[in-house]
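hey team, just a heads up i'm posting the complex here instead of the shared drive bc the drive is being weird again. everything in one block, sequence lines first with there labels, then the predicted structure for the whole assembly after. its two chains so it's a bit long, scroll down
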Amino acid sequence: MRTLSPKYATLIALSALIAVAPFFFPSSFYYRIGALIFINGLAVTGLVVLIGYAGQISLGHAGFSGIGAYACALGPIHLGLPPVMSLILGAVLSGGVAWVVGRPILRLRGHYLAVATLGFGVLIYMVLSNESQITGGPDGMPVEGLGLRELLKSMGFSIKASRLWYWLAALVMLVGVLLALNLHDSPAGRALRSLHDSEVAARTVGVDVSRYKLTAFVISAVYASVAGSQIALLNKFISPDISGFLHSIELVTMTVLGGAGMVFGAVIGATILTALPQVLTVFHEFENLVLGLIMMLVMIFMREGLVPSLARLVRRRER
Amino acid sequence: MSLLSVEGLGIDFGGVKAVDNVCFSVSPGEIVSVIGPNGAGKTTLFNMISGIYIPARGRVKLSGEDTTAMAPHLLAARGLSRTFQNLQVFLQMTVLENVMAGRHLAEGNHVLTDLLGLPRSRRRTRETETVARKLLARVGLERGAEREASALSYGALKRLEIARALASEPRLLLLDEPAAGCNAVETEEIDRLIARIAHEGVAVLLVEHDMKLVMKISNHVIVLDHGEKIAEGAPGDMARNADVIAAYLGTQAREEVINAHG
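-- predicted structure starts here --
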């Protein structure tokens, strides 16, 4: 029997989980948690391209989520754009900013790159907090909703906002996952993964290493931006915290916890770290402490991340 | 006309002249070996030719074009390919993917097509896979191509690097100790492989410690010592050259060389 390619296996597994999960929801509050999981899952899938494929780190990706979120907040007010167009504008803007910022800082490696990206995230956070006449400052600002629910209502379909967002965010995430999986086994994906393993060898087979690093950075920035826009549209409110350092760390922790080299793993990481604080309120108070602890334990005991490490364990058992 | 010509090439590391005033040339179909004791500057010379180090002095020319200090990926586009003494295999990729990665230049840069998984992208991957499997068969690694590269033995990894280097269809191939760590049978295979590559018109520049291999397949030998070229010529002449013997071969190796010829 021919085994399923990893791409279709991942898509089928995720779709099945998304479809089956609502049967176990005790209340419609869980649809909202689900939507948050998929939104984080999208951002984390982008980080898989950057961290897992290309082997580069960013501790400032929440900055791009901030750009996406505020594009959705400001676009309708100042430019008269509908929310969907604002989301696209945010994505284009994030991609552009990533391109400009990435060119100089992607020359750096390892912890130097980590610190430079961290600085970028802080910069975005400061701008959003301080330009209060435009952004409402640290108190945040309201965001116009997507309007999809009203549209559906006028067509005769009535659906709760949380349910609508559950399916919408799931769809967007699946599209993001599909693109990332397409990339993995494509010529460009091989170029990215080759520079992860050996930059010098990647160069000698003709890979323009700086160009491909930048490509991965821009792709992951667009993912983070779309995720940020969705959070703004879902909550109908946004504050600079979305671009904060802690959010960046959360995203990286989700990616590394689940397994940065594997889209499915990273999405599982996003699921665990999004659901736990919501479900266990006890956990919420110690969130940062637990995040740090998880990060340390994963780095010490399963450096590849939860899902790849478990998969390896199962394979070894089978032999 | 020579494909590669190196003129007065030199580099210093912290005031020490690692390589100085090295000149030679390589023509298509020719196998030129660089020999010399450890620390003579052989790998440093390779790194300068392949754009990894920037030379302090001298010129490197590929087909008459000045390529001194040109970035490695641009040199790759001009037909230069290489292997590494300290293996640089893509260890998290499969054996097959390693060779496929070597086809990067033939595949081109089409990130958007690849993201969307368009038929064109999948077709390029299929074409690359076909070529890569042929190359794996050529170096005797066609079995277990789906394994992770990290599962291979040292000798197999050496051959994998050669397959990857060939994937870019080079005009000039730099091999840095391709037979190091290989047993006699594997060395024999590599020896035949290199000869065939050169026979197809590729210019081969070789660094190798296995004297038997060097003497058998080289058309021309360059001897480095302390970063300087102390002699060059036909393999047989080098084995008899008094300077070379003093610097490098020693009496025991000399006997080996004579045996290899006789």
